[in-house]
Amino acid sequence: MDMTELNTLTYDDLDxxxxxxxxxxxxxIMQQVEEALEGSVLEYKKLIVDCxxxxxxxxxxxVIVQNFIRDKYRVKFQELELLVPHPIDYARVVKxxxxxxDLKLVDLEGLLPSAMIMVLLVTALTTKGNQLPEDVLLKTxxxxxxxxxxxxxxxxxxxASETPSSSASGYKSLENVKHINVAANSSTIKITTxxxxxxxxxxxxxxxx
Length: 209
Description:
The protein is mainly alpha-helical and 209 residues long. Helix content is 49%, strand content 8%. It has helices at residues 3-7, 24-37, 44-77, 80-83, 87-97, 114-126, 134-154; strands spanning 177-183, 188-193, 197-200. α3 (44-77) packs across α5. It is elongated, with a radius of gyration of 20 Å. It comes from Arabidopsis thaliana. This is NOSIC domain protein. Residues 47-99 form the NOSIC domain.
């Protein structure tokens, strides 16, 4: 499924289309990352490849969840998705506003720039939205939490101390590994050794685990 298809998805049951976090593959790769950063034996080249693909899948999963949130929340505040297009910012704002109709009662400081908050307040005065039914609101907030969890997973920065272990596959000993940093800020999955540096950048994706 490509990004165009993802952006046109409509559905009522998020679990029927958003399955990544419950998959065995997702759990296994995340576990391998944790073990590697704790100093266990690491097949680092394979882990980089696995992480690279997983991060693409996470980006796609966030699009799926964002579409679900937008489909539900348009009834409440349709203009919001245009004013806050970034999926994670959108999820945070939706979760904060909830079913509140008077945005002056909602503290959005820290979520958006002051100028954007003013735009939202003005727009909210003229929107024709309605409160969501309780069951729909709960599904929407759950989807926001899922989007935020995915965002945390993809940009989790970690460091591993030196691990005195050797690789059975003939690669350099892990005792040479200075640190492993899977970081969103650098947009890079990086493994740095004393004499080897590997950088992988999936095209078009801005952040990583």
